[in-house]
Amino acid sequence: MRKSSAQRTLSEAVRLEAIGQHSGKLCRLSIKPASVDTGIVVNGLPLRLENVKAAAGFTSMGNLLTVEHVLSCLHGLGITNAVIESESAETPIMDGSSLPLAELIKSVEQDAPRKVLFVRKPVEFEDKSARVRLLPGDEPIYSVEIDYSDTPAIGREKMEFALTPEAYMKEIAPARTFARMKDVEFLHSQGKALGASLATGIGVENDKILNPEGLRLKDEFVRHKILDAIGDMFTTGFPLIGRYESEKGGHFHNHELLVKLMSDPDNYEIAEG
User: Fold this and answer.
1) How far is CA 217 from each of CA 34, 39, 88, 142, 209, rounded to the nearest angstrom?
2) Phi and psi of 244, rounded to 5°?
3) Residues in CB range of 32: below 8 A, 6 or more apart
4) Contact 80, 11 (CB under 8 A)
């Protein structure tokens, strides 16, 4: 029988302050320790799928935009109880990764077993642009493939990742968000993505990486997609145990996949794990 892991929270509160990716304005956010069985609470709302919305470029909860990197960090580091409070309409983007937050968090074990969501039946969501699926499994596995063949600097990448806090910190947390400059310029002309710059992510143009420092990690692009997926898969409020697969999927596809998963109680089980 699989031994249950313990619930975890932060040993002390942490605070982030930086511009927002979309508003370009200064954003402030705090994450505080919470007692056993609190779960994740965001601006007074419990982290539950019904409180979450997803669009092509981000995931939001209640009135807070771009929660995916914060949730990814908490999920990746095994935090099950925390209170998130934001003074702004979106989270600080920092450097486009979850590393600045991950380096601040010190977690402590709590005297209670955690509850997780086990995938019990295969579930899939597909549209004309992407396919994502969940399969039963004994551990959290993320298999992600991206295809930007029209942008040689990105190209096609595929990676399989077994989620543990140690592996997340080393292999996923440093991976930054990325964008093609033609897309950023268009969004800027529409008054969107006003915080996007080479300080908040990776810029690419055709076959060039525009950041002077280059990439932090081999396959950094697909690693960031895994970072996003880890955050999205936490939006049920429970750590996910199973195999996640994505072919060109994004936040919208991940949300629709979870809606489909949770629509039938036979698809999943919430239990100690």
Assistant:
1) 33, 32, 31, 18, 13
2) -105, 130
3) 10, 13, 82, 83, 84, 85
4) no
Residue-wise pLDDT tens digits, 146-155: 999 999 999 9
With beta carbons less than 8 A apart as the criterion, state whether 196 and 242 touch.
no
| CA atoms within a 13 Å half-sphere pointing along the CA-CB vector of 135 | 9
pLDDT tens figures, 201-225? 999 999 999 999 999 999 999 999 9
Q: What per-residue confidence (pLDDT) applies to 2? A: 57
**Active site amino acids:** 251
Neighbours of 94 (CB within 10 A): 21
pLDDT at 186: 81
pTM > 0.90: yes
Domains of the chain (ranges; CATH) run 6-272 (3.30.1700.10)
Q: Tell me the Ramachandran region of residue 214: left when phi exceeds 0, alpha when psi lies from -120 to 50, beta otherwise.
A: left
Orientation of helix 68-76 relative to helix 220-232, angle to 10°: 90
Q: Compute, in degrees rounded to 10, the torsion defined by CA atoms 92, 97, 101, 103.
A: -150
CB-based contact 97:224 (threshold 8 Å)? yes
Matching residue, tokens 């996910």: 240
Collapsing DSSP states into helix, strand and coil, what is residue 126?
strand
